[in-house]
Amino acid sequence: MDSKILEQLLKEVREGKLPVAAAVERLRTLPFEDLGFARVDHHRQLRQSFPEVVFAAGKSLEQVRGLLTSLRARADHVLVTRLAPEAAAALTADFPEARYYPDSQAFTLSRGEVPQRGRGPILVISAGTSDIPVAEEALVTARIMGHQAEALYDVGVAGLHRLLAHQDLLAQATCFIVVAGMEGALPSVVAGLVDRPVIAVPTSIGYGASFGGLAALLAMLNSCATGIAVVNIDNGFGAGYLAALINRKD
């Protein structure tokens, strides 16, 4: 339930269109709904302007289905992350409005168009093709939260001219998400070229000494470029969410 729905409910009570008992029933699960295996935080959209997001990894199909049923009843736009393809196929049959993004394993439900809330475009940049799944998770997250998000992939430091050929995109973006594995150098390069926030996302892509993304994480944390925030390894969702908050116009 968001603020507009709550305002409409109170207005209907004031005008006598909705009995008080019916309004109380609707509000009964406003703080949270106990499903037995989970307590769905329906109050989150009022607090943070976006509903609770479902992290599907480690959850059974029935648990994810129950969470989606609960969230869809009270929210217009719902996001699930890290949903396996076989689970997505089953849930798409249950929720016709669903859309699955196989590269990122993100899954969305939308009732109508997503209201646009951004000040300008968010540019999601990946160093290599292998980093695209994490970049796509950031892209889907930013878009479902109401932001124009564009992608610029495979422009890492091994061929820096590929990035520099897109100065127009760099000039237009109001916020950047830069995804890189291996040595994790690309966020420093981008931050050195722009005067807007850069969110760095280390990925677990790389050979043995990358230590599953730890080398990239440490490189990003130790960047000498300014204006960089760093999220956890492979956390495209966290980057997309943070970019959406930074880029909000309201």
Give the tally of structural domains. 2
Name the CATH class of the largest domain: Alpha Beta
Low-confidence stretches: none
- Output mean pLDDT: 92
Q: In sequence order, what are the helices and strands, one letter per element? A: HHEEHEHEHEEEHEHHEHEHEH
Count helical runs. Answer: 11
CATH fold-level assignment of the largest domain: Rossmann fold
Report the strand count. 11
* Overall geometry: globular
Question: What helical percentage do the residues reach?
Answer: 25-40%
Please tell me about this protein's structure.
By secondary structure, the chain is α/β, with parallel strands linked by helices. It has eleven helices and eleven strands. It is 38% helix and 17% strand.
List keywords for this structure.
4-stranded mixed sheet; Rossmann fold; alpha/beta; 2 domains; 250 residues; 5-stranded parallel sheet; single chain
